[in-house]
Design brief:
It contains twelve helices and eight strands. With about 350 residues, it is α+β, with helices and mostly antiparallel strands. The strands form two sheets. The chain has a five-stranded antiparallel sheet. The longest helix has about 90 residues, at about 160-250.
Length: about 350
């Protein structure tokens, strides 16, 4: 069993040469090069799914049921067993076809073409009609012998019918145009991809430059933040110094009567001097010591006891000093500030 696609057929030993090359005949009939199996007897069979797809049938099984006689179709497995018997599976192993695939012979192919509604099948249908009409009128139909005959081997070469030749020419021209259009489309696609890649490259370069600029801006912002932090510290120290100067210039007041820490906090709250929970926490920590006299206090210790940050404790102490709750009288041993009631 020979499998053919679009290559010239190899005639089985003892088989008669076809008057019209089977590949050209099928190409003119279906408009496509379809797979083919040729039996040792020279009979040709074709996958029904290939024919149905090329002829525009949506349902292969339905197309076979409507147009092809039962004796013109069978499965590949049954076809192989009818020729090779038990050795069928080995003989068809390299065909590339499934054993369950439905196959049709040349009569089935012609029936499918006659049932097709595609305009491309018109020339072949015209040939079939001409053959039938000629047989009805003259009793036979024959092809004209070719002007040039092959080597004398007992066979005769014939001219291809005009309808078949014209169909092949049109199909080949269509294929050439399709190949040219495909080549042009590929070239355009390649050019479009090239332009897209160039555009992406330019965009990437711009993004890189933008990232570099952003990195430089971030560096400048970091340096500015460091400078602002330093200025904040300097301003804090200046404010502390001014508070000390103000305390020294303040005239001495009368002796304050003794109060309890709770009374001191209540007085601060009554005068709306302690306005936030953070300030209240720092005031509650300092009040018991302030009512007894000067307080030597490290801000780190206040932060540890209240759970606030060192910066927040510093702001709260500043707030208490500015609102007149206490004042700083100096710096004790180890650089600890000394706070007293005003």
């Amino acid at each position: 069993m020979n499998e053919q696609n679009d290559t010239p057929p190899e005639q089985p030993a003892g088989a008669k040469r076809d008057a019209i090359d089977i590949n050209d005949f099928v190409f003119a009939a279906t408009g496509a090069r379809v797979r083919r199996l040729t039996l040792p007897t020279g009979e040709h069979w074709f996958p029904a799914v290939d024919l149905a797809g090329n002829l525009g049938y949506a349902n292969t099984r339905q197309a076979l049921s409507w147009h092809v006689a039962p004796h013109c179709q069978q499965s590949l497995e049954d076809l192989a067993r009818s020729v090779y018997g038990a050795d069928a599976l080995r003989k068809t192993a390299g065909s590339g076809l499934k054993k369950s695939m439905r196959m049709v012979n040349l009569r089935g192919l012609i029936a499918l073409v006659n049932g097709c509604t595609k305009p491309e099948c018109g020339p072949f249908k015209a040939l079939v009609s001409e053959v039938i009409e000629t047989v009805q009128r003259d009793g036979s139909y024959s092809l004209d012998p070719a002007p040039v005959q092959p080597a004398p081997d007992g066979t005769t070469a014939y001219l291809m019918p005009r309808q078949v030749a014209d169909a092949i020419v049109r199909l080949e021209e269509r294929n050439i145009r399709a190949d040219e259009e495909l080549a042009v489309a590929r070239i355009e696609r390649i050019e479009q991809m090239r332009r897209t890649n160039e555009h992406l490259g330019r965009v990437t370069d711009r993004l890189d430059r933008t990232n570099d600029r952003l990195g430089s801006v971030n560096d400048r912002l970091g340096a500015l933040v460091d400078r602002v932090g330093g200025v904040h510290d300097v301003l804090g120290r200046i404010a502390d110094t001014l508070d000390l100067v103000a305390d020294r210039l303040r005239p001495p007041g009368s002796v304050r009567p003794a109060v309890t820490p709770q009374q001191l906090l209540a007085a601060w709250r009554a005068k709306n001097l302690v306005v936030t929970e953070d300030v209240h926490a720092v005031a509650a920590y300092l009040a018991p010591a302030l009512v007894r006299g000067p307080v030597h206090c490290r801000l780190e210790e206040v932060a540890a006891r209240t759970g606030l940050t060192l910066d927040r404790v510093h702001d709260c102490v500043r707030m208490l000093i500015k609102r007149g709750c206490m004042r700083q009288t100096g710096v004790g041993a180890g650089g600890m500030p000394v706070y007293v009631l005003p």
